[in-house]
Design a protein that fits this description.
Rossmann fold; two-stranded parallel sheet; globular; mainly alpha; 3-stranded parallel β-sheet; 55% helix; binds tryptophanyl-5'AMP; 327 residues; single chain; Tyrosyl-Transfer RNA Synthetase; 5 strands
């Protein structure tokens, strides 16, 4: 029996290379080793302002990106959170074992409050409990995520521990898996790459768009002129090279930058080329899948039905343990 793994992405807009290198690229590899469930977590996505008319397309876009990146529905389960009501049911139960103070100190809550001052809804505060429910519902043992999700994972473990202590052992405490792209900065070179900050390279960007974005991206800000030596270790684009360029090329760029042998524009040209090469097959597959929406919809529905069978069992066990199983 393989150990189980859950991870998910919010359908809040197109997927970007932070999602790809931080999460999905890892997921694709982990499919061989674990029993994987990959969620499109739409209930999380409605905690910020959004247009209901766009949501269906965003969900499909998310599923299409998973498939285009190499998630194989024969090996893994691809599911939609809102099609498995046990997620929200378990979240409610977990709410009752989660002290309010634990949620108030989660860093992403404070961040979101400052980003959405006009919409500080209860869902924003409760967000990590729903995330804990996503993970614990499948008794997941590992959760591959980017670095920004680690406080949520810590909280998930605390909630699991508290539930187990109160009602008897039920949930394993899940551990995170992070890859070498665990924290990708945006094109501004300062903030995390994020849809809401408009500093992203999207998986759907063409080579022309990728070049346009990279050509104006921030590099080592201390390198003012072409003749100045640069410091690759503080340059965001050099960290992107580490994700997509070959070893020898990375070394050439490093030495060239340190000795002012190459300029930032030369470095960006090589990066744009390699980034496009990595993303082009994904973009082509995405375009093909948009032509076959019925298949994508079927994969989501079948995956959600499959996930629901596991979810029902866990919820039955949980309800029995908390004294709410009335049959
Ligand atoms: P979300 O939708 O913001 O991001 C999805 C995944 O992409 C990673 N990621 C990044 N990694 C590196 N650098 C970046 N700039 C970057 N931006 C995003 C995230 O770390 C994440 O792994 N709360 C989650 C969604 C969620 C979830 C879950 C995840 C809900 N339930 C259960 C795992 C398990 C979120 O907002 O991810």
């Amino acid at each position: 029996m393989k150990e189980r793994l859950f991870s998910g992405i919010q359908p809040t807009g197109g997927l970007h290379i932070g999602n790809y290198f931080g999460a999905i690229k890892n997921w694709v590899k982990l499919q061989e080793k674990y029993e994987c469930i990959f969620g499109i977590v739409d209930y999380h996505a409605i905690t910020v302002n959004y247009n209901p008319e766009e949501m269906r397309r965003r969900i499909l876009d998310c599923a299409i990106s998973y498939l285009a990146c190499g998630i194989d529905p024969e090996k893994s389960t691809l599911m939609l959170q809102s099609l498995v009501p046990e997620h929200t049911e378990l979240a409610w139960i977990l709410n009752t074992v989660t002290p309010l103070a634990w949620l108030e100190r989660v860093p992403t809550f404070k961040e979101k409050v400052s980003q959405n001052p006009q919409n500080i809804n209860t869902g924003l505060l409760d967000y990590p409990v729903l995330m804990a429910a996503d993970i614990l519902l499948y008794k997941s043992v590992v959760v591959p995520v980017g670095e920004d999700q680690l406080p949520h994972l810590e909280l998930t473990r605390e909630i699991a521990r508290k539930f187990n202590k109160t009602f008897g052992y039920t949930f394993p405490e899940p551990r995170e898996i992070t890859g070498k792209g665990a924290r990708i900065l945006g094109l501004d070179g300062v903030n995390k790459m994020s849809k809401s900050l408009n500093n992203c390279i999207y998986l759907s960007d063409s080579p022309q768009v990728i070049w346009k974005k990279l050509s104006t991206a921030v590099t080592d800000t201390n390198r003012k002129r072409r003749e100045d030596p640069g410091n690759p270790e503080v340059c965001n684009l050099f960290s992107m090279h580490k994700l997509v360029s070959k070893k020898e090329e990375i070394e050439t760029v490093r030495r060239g930058c340190q000795r002012a042998g190459i300029g930032c524009l030369d470095c960006k040209k090589i990066l744009a080329e390699n980034m496009s090469q990595e993303l082009e097959p994904i973009r082509e597959k995405q375009n093909m899948l948009w032509e076959n929406l019925k298949d994508v919809e079927d994969i989501i529905k079948e995956g959600s039905n499959k996930a629901r069978m596991i979810a029902r069992q866990t919820l039955k066990e949980v309800k029995e343990k908390i004294g709410l199983y009335f049959n």
